[in-house]
Structures are given as C-alpha cells and as structure tokens.
C-alpha cells in the first residue's frame, strides 16, 4: 500500500496513538488502513462414501487437485460462501453443511473454514476454474497431487473420522514449510 | 474507497473480466481492490463455573458488557488472536482454548469466532478498552446489559450446554435487527 484510498495522498507506516502495531497511516487525512486475514471457505462434498475433488485450471498449483474453496465475499455467511464456491468450481449443489475444519495459515494471512457437505445429487462438472472434477473413493485420493497442505490435512482427518464413524470439528494451524517440497511440521488436527 | 492504494489514481466500480461481482478497479493501473469480511476472535473465559465479562470503555455500546474479542491481526492464528484480545481487554491469561461458536454477521461483513477458555488463575483487571472486568455466576449474567446479540447467543448456549454437560461447536448467523431495539429473529444455534 502506497496511497490513501480515501484522499489519494501518500501513506506512511507508523504505530497510531493508542495502538500497539505499525499500520499504514495517511500523511494528509490521518486515516488508518488496517489489514486483516481473509477467510477461505470451502466444502468437502461427499456422495455415497466418495469425495468430490477439483483439478485446478488456475495458478497457483495448476493441474493439482483440491477441494472447492475460495475467498469469502462481503454480505454472505461462511456456509453460503462454501456452497457458492462449490457451485462455481464444481457445478455442484450441496445440502446442509457441517463445520469440519478451521485452519489458520498465519504466514499468508488466511483462515480456511471447510464444511462437510453431502451432494444433493451425483451431478457435477468442471467450472471455469477447474480442468476436471471427479468423485474419489477414499483409497484412491491422489495424495501426491493435492494442491495445498490444508487440503491434505482435511482429507486425512476425513478418512480417519469416517473409519471410526465419529466426526469432530478440527482446529489447527498450517505452518510455513521449511524449504521447497518439504512437508510442514506436525501440528494439531 | 475513492483512490487506488497502489498508484493514487481514482477508482471506479465495475465487474472485472472473469468476475461476477462489482469491485473497486483503478482507472489507471487496473488493480482490482477486493473487500472481504473480517474475523472477530474472542474468548469465553471461565473459572470455577463463572464467566469473565468486560464492561466496554469504548463505543459502540459504551458501558455495556461483553466477552473479550476483537479483530484478528495478520500473522496470528485465530486462537492467538482470541487469547491476545483477552489479555488486552481483561488483563487475563487463558489456558488451552476450544472452538465454541462461529457466527456470520453478513450485514456488517464480520465473522465471530469464540473459544471456551479456562483462566489459568483468577487474576484479571480492566484493560484500556474496559471500564470493569468481573466473573459472573451464570444466573447473574447481566442479560439486559450485554453489548451485542452475538454475545447473548454465545452465553445462552454456554448456560444450556453447561447444564447438560455437553459442549458442541455452534455455527450460526446473526441477522440484522428489524428496527431499533427489536431482537433479531430466531436462527440456528
């Protein structure tokens, strides 16, 4: 951020009076510009024991598989955002959703919120951001071709919870990988 | 938003190519400025069956009672944000937190995430944003002097869940009140 979005003057970085963190502050009108984490909402759509994955048609991670998810918009609930992303990326409708995973990713200022969601029918297709969309048996998930560590974590939890037939809401953190290709350190589920 | 924070030129409102919603777009450099909901993270701190509430020293709702909560910052996890807000507003330290409520408030573009959190000791005080901080027995909560509907909902759930000794993660929506002073319509817990 270089300019104030209210008056167009330059901003500077300083700790406002009564605050404890450096912020972008306008040098002319004094407006403080806060920056906060974004919510990524998505679904784990399922149908008769299989889960729906999307193969990404966009960067980052073009060509890799993921659960349908994207940035929550103003004016919607988290569940509405998750269902909308599933509609857009997988052309699929989900029924009642159940919160399943909340993952903070502090190094990229995001919080993922994933919901278990039954498909209302086994009908789906590739939305504009997807190359392909398919239902996978849990022992056929392309673990080595998943786009994001957070999706790996959610699908691992789902496989385990389904085996023991007990679902809980998982809350955790995705830590920045140490180097290219290295897995993130273990953390809570 | 009137000006681009990247180049300082004026912004206009239009639907970018490949998008479906109107956004602020820079008339000079073309940067799209997305706006997304913010997370408000907080705790329901408890000690020997009592809950810790803060009396607000700031607007809105000056003088009314609330659970310690505030905007999540970049670079932290949701739990860290909730514990930090409790430290700042109630000068209190909490132990391991458990996700307890997720409430979307779409008309103000916020998502509240509240955690049940035991105090590590019965030590607390009024932070700079609080007039007073106190532990309340559940039958002594000042229901008519709570600052926000979301806090009413969380405390109602807690009183009920504590009676039946079973806690779940509540997910819901806070709907805009119909008129001044009227309660919000009933919704899921």
SSE layout and pairing:
The structure is a homodimer of 189-residue chains.
Chain A: E1 11-14, E2 23-26, E3 32-33, E4 38-47, E5 50-56, E6 65-66, E7 69-71, H1 78-90, E8 98-105, E9 110-118, E10 130-136, H2 149-164, E11 170-173
Parallel strand pairs in A: 4-9, 8-11
Antiparallel strand pairs in A: 1-2, 2-3, 4-5, 4-7, 5-6, 5-10, 8-9
Sketch the major β-sheet of chain A: 8 strands, mixed
> Looking at CATH, which topology of the largest domain in chain A would you report?
Nucleoside Triphosphate Pyrophosphohydrolase
| Integer-rounded radius of gyration of chain A | 19 Å
- The SSE string of chain A, one letter per element, is EEEEEEEHEEEHE
Fraction of residues in H or I helices of chain A: 10-25%
The chain-level mean pLDDT of chain A equals 94
- Overall geometry of chain A: elongated
Oligomer: homodimer
**The CATH superfamily title of the largest domain in chain A:** Nucleoside Triphosphate Pyrophosphohydrolase
From the N-terminal CA to the C-terminal CA of chain A, the straight-line distance is 35 Å
What portion of residues of chain A belong to β-strands?
A: 25-35%
CATH class identity of the largest domain in chain A? Alpha Beta
Largest interface: A-B, 42 and 42 residues
Helical region count of chain A? Answer: 2
Number of discrete domains of chain A: 2
Structural class of chain A: alpha+beta
**Unreliable parts of chain A:** none
CATH architecture annotation of the largest domain in chain A: Alpha-Beta Complex
Number of strands of chain A: 11
